[in-house]
UniProtKB/TrEMBL annotation:
Domain Sporulation stage II protein D amidase enhancer LytB N-terminal span(s) in chain numbering: 256-345
A Pfam family reported for this protein in Swiss-Prot or TrEMBL: SpoIID
NCBIfam families the record matches: SpoIID_LytB
Protein name: Sporulation stage II protein D amidase enhancer LytB N-terminal domain-containing protein
Keywords (A to Z) from UniProt: Signal, TPR repeat
Repeat (TPR) residue spans along the chain: 102-135
Signal sequence, renumbered to the chain: 1-22
Length: 522
C-alpha cells in the first residue's frame, strides 16, 4: 500500500500545527522528524519536510541547513548527484554568510567523488583546503584529495551502482507484530520449539502463549528472560496468532510489548505481498507489473535506509502490506516467479516505485506531492484509468463534521466560513486548500486536507468543492496520491493486450528493467 504510506506519515507529522504560520515554528523538531523518516527508509517524506523548512522559514541558517540535508538525501538516497550539487552550489551563492557553507564546500567534493567525477572532486577539495586550512575536516579533505588525484583519469573497476547491488541483502526482515501484549505461537497438536540462543526453552505442542512483563518474555506463564526467542516448528511453517509464515520467526520484548520479526528471502516475501496489493483475479500481466514494482520498492528500501538492528520493513501500509504464507495464492505466486529478480532501475539502482489505486486520467509527479523532482516519477496522461472504478467520485461532508475531523488531526479551526483551492498542478490536483474560519485562516496542502478528511472519503487531491448550505459537495477523480503506477490503469492495459514491461514503462519514465543474478536468489 505504498499509495498511502508517504502521505499519511507526512500529514501526521505536520498536522500538530493549526496553520501555515504555526507550521513555520519548531523547525529543529522537523529536522529530527526528517532524520527519523530517513532511518525508516521514508525518503520522500523526509524530502518534503526539508522542503517545508526551506520554503517556510525566514532563518537563513535553517534554510541553508535544510539545503545541506537535501543534498545528502539526493546524493545518497535518490541517486541524483547533479541535484545534490545544485543544492550545495545554492548554499555557496545564496547563503555564503552562514556557518553551513564550509560543510557545503566539503560535501561538493564528496558528492563529485562518489559519482566518479574525480577531476571535479580534486578541484573542490583543493578549494576547501585553501579556504579552511585549519578546519576540523581539513585532514579528511586531504585524504579524499589524494584518492581523487589517484583516480582522476582512470575508469573505476567497480561502478558505485554495481558496488551497491553487490551489497544488497538476499533476505528481508519484516516486522509482523509491533508492541503487542500477547502472541500465540504454533497450532494445536503441531510440534513446536521455542529457543533462546539456540537452546530450547520449550519443546512440545502448540499453541504457546507469549506475554511480556518488566521487559521479560513469559512462555505459558514461565519467565523466559529479556533476550530474543526463536520459533522452530519441525519442518512446518511457524505460526503467529494462527497465521503461517515462511522463513524464521523471532520475538523481542520491549517497553511497550512484544515485537515479532519474520526473516525470509526476497522472493518468498513477495509471495505474501502481491495478493495483498492486487487482486489475484486480475490479469497476469498486471500482476507481473505489480510484482516488479513491489520488488523494486523492497530493494530500494533495503539499499537506502539505515540498518535497523531488528527489522527492515513493516508488514503494513507504512511499507507494503504483507500477509505471510496464508495470504499466498497460485495466481499471485506465478507472476513473482516469472519476474524473479527483476526490478526497475535509474542509473543502475532500484527506484522508489510508488503506486496507487487509480490516477483518474493523469498521474502526478513526485515533485508536486513531496517536493522531490525525480526523473522517473513524472506525471503522464493515463486514459487507461478513466473508465475504471473510482475514476471519478462524489462525496458530501457536513461542515461541522469537517471541523471535527480537522480537530481530531491536531488542527484548531473554528467554524468554516469559506473554502478555496489554489496552485493546481498540471494533472489538476490541488496544491493548497485555504479554509477561512471563525478562528482565523487555515492553509493546508491538498494532500494534507484529503488525509485529514479521510483518504477513503476524499479519495484524491484532484477535486472541486461546492458549498451547499451546511455541507460541502466534493467531486473528484482518482484514488490515492497519483504518483507512479495506477493499479487500475495497469489492469486495463493488461486486458487491452499490453505486457507488463510496457505497463511499467508507461508509468515510470527514464528507467530500465534489470534482472539481478538469479543464482543469488533463494
Amino acid at each position: 500500500m505504498i499509495r498511502l504510506k508517504h502521505l499519511i506519515t507526512l500529514c501526521l507529522l505536520l498536522c500538530f500545527a493549526p496553520g501555515l504560520s504555526a507550521q513555520t515554528e519548531s523547525r529543529s523538531g522537523l529536522f529530527e522528524e526528517a532524520s527519523t523518516l530517513l532511518e525508516q527508509g521514508n525518503t520522500l517524506e523526509a524530502a518534503a519536510l526539508y522542503r517545508r523548512i526551506l520554503e517556510g522559514n525566514s532563518d537563513r541558517e535553517q534554510r541553508a541547513r535544510a539545503l545541506l540535508f537535501l543534498s545528502t538525501l539526493y546524493s545518497r538516497n535518490l541517486n541524483l548527484p547533479d541535484t545534490a550539487v545544485a543544492c550545495l552550489e545554492q548554499i555557496e551563492t545564496t547563503y555564503p554568510d552562514t556557518s553551513v557553507v564550509s560543510d557545503a564546500r566539503f560535501a561538493l567534493g564528496v558528492v563529485t567523488y562518489r559519482s566518479g567525477r574525480f577531476h571535479q572532486a580534486v578541484t573542490h577539495f583543493e578549494g576547501f583546503i585553501e579556504l579552511y586550512p585549519d578546519h576540523m575536516r581539513s585532514s579528511s579533505a586531504r585524504a579524499w584529495l589524494r584518492e581523487a588525484e589517484e583516480l582522476a583519469g582512470t575508469k573505476p573497476s567497480v561502478s558505485p551502482q554495481n558496488k551497491a547491488m553487490d551489497q544488497l541483502p538476499d533476505r528481508v526482515r519484516v516486522l509482523i507484530r509491533n508492541d503487542v501484549e500477547k502472541v500465540l505461537l504454533g497450532k494445536a497438536g503441531d510440534p513446536i520449539a521455542i529457543l533462546r540462543d539456540g537452546v530450547p526453552l520449550y519443546e512440545g505442542e502448540g499453541p504457546v502463549a507469549v506475554t511480556v512483563k518488566n521487559k521479560a518474555l513469559i512462555l505459558n506463564g514461565v519467565v523466559a528472560g529479556s533476550r530474543a526467542l526463536a520459533v522452530r516448528s519441525e519442518g512446518l511453517r511457524p505460526r503467529v496468532d494462527g497465521q503461517a509464515y515462511r522463513g524464521r520467526v523471532t520475538l523481542w520484548p520491549g517497553d511497550k510489548g512484544i515485537s515479532v520479526v519474520n526473516t525470509l528471502g526476497i522472493e518468498p516475501y513477495l509471495y505474501g505481498v502481491l495478493p495483498k496489493e492486487m487482486s489475484p483475479l486480475w490479469p497476469e500481466e498486471a500482476l507481473k507489473a505489480q510484482a516488479v514494482a513491489s520488488r523494486t520498492y523492497t530493494y530500494n528500501t533495503l539499499l537506502s535506509q539505515k540498518d535497523h538492528p531488528r527489522f527492515d520493513l513493516e508488514a503494513s501500509t507504512a511499507f507494503q502490506v504483507y500477509g505471510g504464507a496464508d495470504a499466498e495464492t497460485p495466481e499471485t505466486t506465478r507472476p513473482v516467479d516469472l519476474t524473479r529478480g527483476s526490478y526497475l532501475a535509474f542509473q543502475g539502482l532500484p527506484i522508489i516505485a510508488c503506486f496507487h489505486a487509480n490516477s483518474g486520467g493523469m498521474t502526478e509527479s513526485a515533485d508536486a506531492v513531496w517536493g522531490a523532482a525525480l526523473p522517473y516519477l513524472k506525471g503522464v496522461k493515463d486514459s487507461f484509468s478513466r473508465l475504471t472504478p473510482d475514476a471519478c467520485w462524489k462525496k458530501e461532508l457536513r461542515v461541522d463534521a469537517m471541523v471535527k475531523r480537522l480537530w481530531s488531526k491536531g488542527y484548531r479551526p473554528g467554524g468554516i466560513i469559506s473554502l478555496e483551492t489554489t496552485e493546481h498542478s498540471p494533472s489538476g490536483r490541488i496544491g493548497r486548500v485555504i479554509l477561512n474560519t471563525s478562528r482565523g485562516r487555515l492553509e493546508l496542502t491538498g494532500n494534507e486536507f484529503r488525509l485529514a478528511m479521510g483518504p477513503t472519503e476524499i479519495k484524491s487531491s484532484r477535486f472541486s468543492a461546492t458549498r451547499q448550505g451546511n455541507r460541502y459537495l466534493f467531486e473528484g477523480c482518482g484514488y490515492g496520491h497519483g504518483v507512479g503506477m495506477s493499479q487500475w490503469g495497469a489492469r486495463k492495459m493488461a486486458t487491452s493486450g499490453f505486457t507488463y514491461d510496457t505497463i511499467l514503462h508507461h508509468y515510470y519514465k527514464n528507467v530500465s528493467l534489470v534482472t539481478i543474478d538469479k543464482g543469488r536468489l533463494r
